[in-house]
Amino acid sequence: MGTSFMPFLLAITPEPNDLTVVITGLLLVFLILILLTLIIALQGKFFDSLEAKKKAKSAPAPSAPAPSAPAAGGNVSAAAVLPAPGAVTPEIVAVIAAAVAGMEQGGFTIRSIKPVSRAAQASGRKAWGQAGVQSNTAPF
To answer: 101 Cβ partners below 8 Å, 6+ apart?
Structure first.
């Protein structure tokens, strides 16, 4: 009796149809992409929290005394005077001079340093971007 169903079972093809394979493949790919996105986002939050803890431990609260107003007729010390926003400080001049000396081995003198405004840039690129464009397109 059990042998009468055997030819019927052998006639069934064990392979799935094409639509089933395509849908299963697409679902698998998108589920794995979503899983990878979640894993990367969680790693970013984890490392950001570690970095915040390191900064909190390494940066103690500043204990600088508050500047007091000078007495009548008193002088203001040089340390209490802050440079104007956008002003070129001596530290910036030293860094620019060191960069020029490092790039060029000749005797150069820096005569002036002026901040470049956004309106002065015709192409709308920042200084390093403009330098890259000039460097890469110079042979043309």
So the answer is: 108
Contact call for residues 122 and 128 (beta carbons, < 8 A): no
Identity at 55, one-letter amino acid code:
K
The pLDDT assigned to 55 comes to 85
Contacts for 124 with CB less than 8 Å, ≥ 6 apart: 118
How far out from the chain centre does Cα 123 lie?
23
DSSP-derived 3-state class of residue 116: coil
Considering only residues 91 and 109, tell me which one the structure prediction assigns the higher pLDDT: 91
User: Contact at 8 Å (CB) between 110 and 100?
Assistant: yes
Q: DSSP string spanning 57-87?
A: HHSPPP-PPPPPPPPTTPPPPGGGPPPPTT-
64: Cα within 13 Å, side-chain hemisphere: 6
| Under 8 Å between Cβ of 116 and 126 | no
Which pTM was predicted? 0.34
Please answer whether residues 92 and 113 qualify as being in contact, where contact means their C-beta atoms are separated by less than 8 angstroms: yes
Nearby residues of 67 by Cβ (< 8 Å), 6 or more positions away: 80
